[in-house]
Amino acid sequence: MSNALHVGLNHYLVVSSLLFMIGVAGVLVRKNVIVILMSIELMLNAVNLSFAAFSHFNQEPGGQVMVFFVMAIAAAEAAIGLAIAVAVYRKFNGIEIKLFENLKG
Amino acid sequence: MGSYDVIFYILSIVSLGAALGVIFFPSPIYSALMLAITMSGLAAMFFTLEAYFLAGVQLIVYAGAVVVLFVMVLMLFDLRKESQPFSGQKISNFFKAGIIAAASMALIIPLSTVFFIRTEKTKPVTTVDLAGTLFTKYVFAFEAIGILLLVVLVGALALAKSRGGTHE
Q: Are the Cβ atoms of B94 and A29 closer than 8 angstroms?
């Protein structure tokens, strides 16, 4: 830790946690369901970055395998979330998160 | 500060700036474009981490498929100007997010110095290692992901066929 500007694992983890927090802030402050889903993708990508960084700095392929699984889950989640958003838009003619409280059984 | 460091800082500034653009542009279509920039920046960061195959998959799956999916769905909606894109108690929400961010930084940075073991480059993880691990140690999880994707396919079709609501 002699030179703080020399890039190591910590730098990647800081970028990853900042990206995660931007995603959390997006979920908290936006009303549009599509943008909320995008913020969730940002959070998943932040986790991917820290997995890849740990994998690189420990020479362990398991972290990269986890990134693959997260990518598959994220694509599935985006597909289902957008399908639900389209269904809600057809029913209520809007995609604000407030409309989701009308959903019942 | 070598060229590796300079590239890292440029990429992180681009990625984080574009991520801020995702949540601050009022129009969702600009958010989708900013999301594509963030994904591309992260793919370049995977390159700096010597995860070349992962960088390619990131570009294809995220910057390609997922962002295109978002843009396609946005195309279906009526993109009139949102009267109020941000939810009401904006200041307090940002305050909460800031507190969580500061707490997570305060946790992560000391923890990462504890767990950060090796700095010297011994042997980078190659795509061959990656494939070997994926299809031996994690093969059950791989099969489970396959089943999950099948379920998601059926679920998305069921959602697309329904007319919204289960009572009609």
A: yes
